[in-house]
Design goal:
With 153 residues, the chain is α+β, with helices and mostly antiparallel strands. Helix content is 16%, strand content 35%. The protein is built from 2 helices and 7 strands; from the N terminus they run βββββααββ. The strands form 2 sheets. The chain has a 4-stranded antiparallel β-sheet with strand order 3-4-6-7, with helices on one face. It has a 3-stranded mixed β-sheet with strand order 1-2-5. A hairpin with a 2-residue loop joins β6 and β7. The N and C termini lie far apart (32 Å).
Length: 153
């Protein structure tokens, strides 16, 4: 389970990349607009993990959309958390859902969705999508902006 802190403990500090998601820490900061329904998006176009069978690197464009309640995830801690997958062996589906579920457990957002757009291995791209449920009424939900695979970029 990924550790969490209330407050930006990592921000402004020299921080090493965690060796695994289990060693990563997510910092949470208070949402200055907890009564508003709005969307926060993080896009990680250079996400990497390792194939658990071959040890070869896998690459993805990860898009995380969430509607916060009381807490926001601090972006530096999220970058370090996502970077901790670099040496982590797991299948595409497991990486994508673990990221989403770790964020939901940490923040308890109104709503969250994730799109994991994985680059081809063996000629087949694998795209993985998950969300907590129906988006809140009135939430503007833009397209995630990642085209179907044709030499993704």
């Amino acid at each position: 389970m990924t550790k969490t802190h209330k407050g930006a403990a990592l921000l402004g500090q020299k921080s090493a990349l965690p060796r695994s998601p289990d060693e990563a820490e997510l910092d949470l900061v208070a949402n200055p607009h907890p009564g508003e329904t709005y969307l926060v998006r993080f896009a990680a176009p250079e996400f990497t993990s390792l194939c658990p069978v071959t040890g070869q690197p896998d690459f993805a464009h990860i898009v995380i959309d969430y509607a916060p309640m009381e807490w926001l995830v601090e972006s530096k801690s999220l970058k370090l958390y996502l970077g901790s997958y670099r040496n982590h062996g797991a299948f595409h589906e497991d990486c994508t859902l673990r990221i989403a579920k770790d964020l939901v457990a940490a923040m308890t957002p109104r709503w969250l969705r994730i799109g994991g757009y994985w680059y081809p291995r063996g000629g087949i791209p694998i795209d993985v999508f998950w969300q907590t449920g129906a988006p809140p009424a009135g939430l503007w939900l833009p397209d995630q902006g990642v085209p179907p695979y044709r030499g993704r970029g």
